[in-house]
């Protein structure tokens, strides 16, 4: 579901949507002010929203979730305009229309991580924030941004109207037809064992949530072997030639809450890169179950690094970004500060 990069793409020179070159500092920002303080956060008067429901999310349960959320939004005085989302193409078209409609204050998505990834491709570069009503099987975007899975509470956050800029990842890759493409992503791009498990998880229809991830993990484990990897972090070539997995993260978790990058942040201008060294199958489960318990850091074979630009290729595998497959071959990833706009919970007063 990626878009071919047109020659005149506004992202071709890797500028953030606010006009700031992603590899240079703003006057008075990173050199003189902590980077996290350069991210705009504000309360907006959100009155009219584009509501995009993915009816297929969570085997149709998204409809019930949306009904609950809509009651809260109506009660809070928001005007809801429905945009169709029966197919991926229709979802993209609805997102384009919502972005172009000057009367819309925000785009609200009721669904899972897949539909959010689609919306992101159209929303980046606009001033309209994305609001999330979690209604998928993993809901890792919601977990990352601290949005409750309860639809009443997540709808209340949208009505509160607190919005924030965030970092986004920009993936540049070549598809199977030789076309150069780009894709925005928000949480994690991964390749290796975790990517194979994620692929398997998407194929399965049962069970739901993290149990489906765990079952997929055991299935992949029976046939997995570490793959040759070519990895560079900010131009520095990685020393190992085989890895079990590599996760490039703005978000902390994937797979319905598996914490693989506990240090990751969407407000620091860099990726957190988690790697798991080459190891036999019998030893793979220990660090992965440590991740499930939120204890990936310190597990055998696990290392963490930070970088703004990552070049990644794992032989025979295609990385996935926010659950969407990228291309085979080398994938270049760039952390673009302040590229995202999301409706998030208001920070608690210290």
Automatic annotation (TrEMBL):
Keywords per UniProt: ATP-binding, Kinase, Lipid biosynthesis, Lipid metabolism, Nucleotide-binding, Phospholipid biosynthesis, Phospholipid metabolism, Transferase
Co-factor(s): Mg(2+)
Positions of the DAGKc domain: 44-175
Region (Disordered): 1-40
One record GO biological process: phospholipid biosynthetic process
Transmembrane segments: none
A cellular component term, taken from the record's GO annotations: plasma membrane
UniProt-listed Gene3D superfamilies: 2.60.200.40, Probable inorganic polyphosphate/atp-NAD kinase, domain 1
Gene Ontology molecular function: any one: ATP binding
Top-level taxonomic group: Bacteria
Listed SUPFAM superfamilies: NAD kinase/diacylglycerol kinase-like
Similarity annotation: Belongs to the diacylglycerol/lipid kinase family.
Name recorded for this polypeptide: Diacylglycerol kinase
Natural source organism: Mobiluncus curtisii ATCC 51333
